[in-house]
Amino acid sequence: MNRELKGKRISELDVENVKCLNQPLDAVRDETIGRRILGARPRGKWVFIELEGDNNLLYNTGMGANTIYYPAGTPPVEKRHIRVGLGDGSGFTSQVWWFCYLHLVKTGSLGEHKMTNQLGPTPMEDAFTPEYLGSILKGRGAVKNTLLDQRKVAGIGNVYIHDPLFLAGVHPLRAANTVTGEEAHRLHASIAAILKESISMGGLAYEVNFYGVKGGYGKPQYRVAYKEGEPCPACGVAIQKIKTGSTSSYVCPRCQPR
To answer: What CATH number corresponds to the domain at position 53?
Structure first.
């Protein structure tokens, strides 16, 4: 995204459902159209698009979206909820699966943006160390809930949490403060390994990248995730699907004792 957008000027902004905005659409257009894009970077589940004029577009696709770039001379995807047109005729569209947020925030006010100013480090950042992970596993709440708390670790979704917990031998419903230092190190390594593997394959098989190409990381690569009833790859015991709050988890009852 950064490669395709950086240096180009926004020429059009169409938003189908204005409820995703934090300001009226006309106000957002006034502050974005004609402005050059200085860069785009990920921050957890958000994308920060920095604009000249001390403004930023902060985009969160909620449960997911097909966000697709179109080159100059190519018509944009027709089924879309958001379209950003660029001065050279290129642009990108986003078809949101459920809900999203598109917020205009001044650079000087980023620290006051309540949805992003308390995000924890992402697993790809240097700040996400085994020691940091151990430091957040101190409460009595479930390990899984701690790892999905964006204020503690930004960017991990439910689909990516099952296999790291399995590889570390940690049950998702265990109290976070019962995780040992050795287990925290294993969990840290497992989170990094799973995410790097997915990234190397272009992301999840049911998602598309910025060019509309599907990823290659799916059920054949999963260890226990979404494999209820299948044998555990380590011990052969049937994988179980359990309820963990508002979400489900997949565990090996032998390798991940509670």
So the answer is: 3.20.190.10
Q: Pick from 112, 140, 156: which residue ends a domain?
A: 112
Over residues 38-56, the mean pLDDT reads 96
Indicate whether 20 and 99 sit together in one domain.
Answer: yes
Evaluate whether residue 124 is within a structural domain: no
Give the total number of structural domains in the chain: 2
Q: Do 102 and 141 share a structural domain?
A: no
pLDDT > 90? residue 147: yes
Q: How far apart are CA 196 and CA 178, in angstroms?
A: 27
What's the pLDDT at 77? Answer: 86
Average pLDDT (90-108) is: 95
pLDDT in the model for residue 203: 94
Rounded-to-integer distance, Cα 122 and Cα 211, Å:
24
Residue 120: is its pLDDT beyond 90?
yes
Residues 153, 58, 61, CA angle at the centre, nearest 5°? 70
For residues 187 and 155, state if they share a domain: yes
Show which of 83, 112, 141 is a domain's final residue. Answer: 112
